[in-house]
Amino acid sequence: MLMLRNCVRVLSGVGLGVMLCGVADVRAQSSLGTAQSFAVLGGSTVTNTGPSVLTGDLGVSPGAAITGFPPGTTTGITHAADAVALQAQSDVTTQYNALASAACTADLTGQDLGGKTLTPGVYCFSTSAQLTGALTLNAQGNANATFVFKTGSTLTTASASSVAMINGGNPCLVAWQIGSSATLGTTTSFIGNLIALSSISLNTGANIIGRALARNGAVTLDTNNISTAACGVGLPPVPTLSAWAVIVLVGLLALAGFATLRNRRSATGSRGAF
Question: Exposed (0-12), middle (13-18) or buried (19+): which is 28, by Cβ within 10 Å?
């Protein structure tokens, strides 16, 4: 989960400045801006083989080449080196940088993601990451549970690997920030927003619930399904429960501080009358 500390200074009852820091959740997809509508966005080219199906927009920028559609199909709009794709790439870059700067909650360098069950957090690999088998993400009943995976270089999945979410959650609140390139093996079942600095390659039958977004390189497809249908495209970046809790707490403490100061002034006035 991308975590930003929101700090607010209020007056306490003793007249001292108190800094309250609450942790607010930043939704992994809200920061995608105009890129939210894209199922696939390439930097140089997008190439496809076979009857791939994209649920969402298809685009490329600053490159202009999109090949293999048809036989591939998309339910959205195709943007090749136009203003929409350019802005989407700018928003992808903003999100990529935000993910890259997120503080790690666990370092998994050298560990295979296969066989693990993880709870919301920011999971980091100083170099490459590998998934062989099944990775389970436990949202713990939180519809806004966010998972961030950061790799210093590549992400590679073995054939028939999978990423699945249990106990609620939204697949598109999973973000993969890839330092170079990502390759999904044959028939991999994957969830989340895959954001690579360079290229993304999906081997035959690999599917994503989420997005494939490459900043500088190509997106290469081969009979894949990529769908943003479960993402709630257009969700506003509203405060989550933890953020509202901080706001309410700050307000209550401020009111308590003003009430204490008023009572002290009243008491001082009363003593002065004797």
Answer: buried
* 102 close to 146: Cβ distance less than 8 angstroms: no
Parallel, antiparallel or unpaired: strands 134-138 and 117-118: parallel
CB 58, CB 235: distance < 8 Å: no
Residue 244, token pair as written in the block = 């509202």
Distance CA 110, CA 8 (A): 39
Q: What is the per-residue pLDDT for 14?
A: 32
Bridge partner list, 189: 162, 207
Q: What is the pLDDT of residue 232?
A: 56
Measured between alpha carbons, how far is 1 from 80 in angstroms, rounded to an integer?
32
Q: What is the pLDDT of residue 119?
A: 97
**What is the b/e burial string over 164-180, where b = at least 16 CB atoms within 10 angstroms of the residue's CB?**
ebeeebbbbbbbbbbbb
- The whole-angstrom separation of Cα 198 and Cα 154 is 10
Half-sphere exposure of 93 (CA within 13 A, CB side): 11
Question: CA 172, CA 181: separation in Å to the nearest integer?
Answer: 20
Q: Please enumerate in sequence order all residues whose Cβ is within 8 A of that of 170, keeping only pairs 6 or more positions apart, or say none.
A: 143, 144, 145, 230, 231, 232
Segments in the chain below pLDDT 50: 1-28, 233-250, 270-274
Q: pTM score, two decimals?
A: 0.76
Residue spans of the domains in the chain: they are 30-231
The residue type of 67 is: T
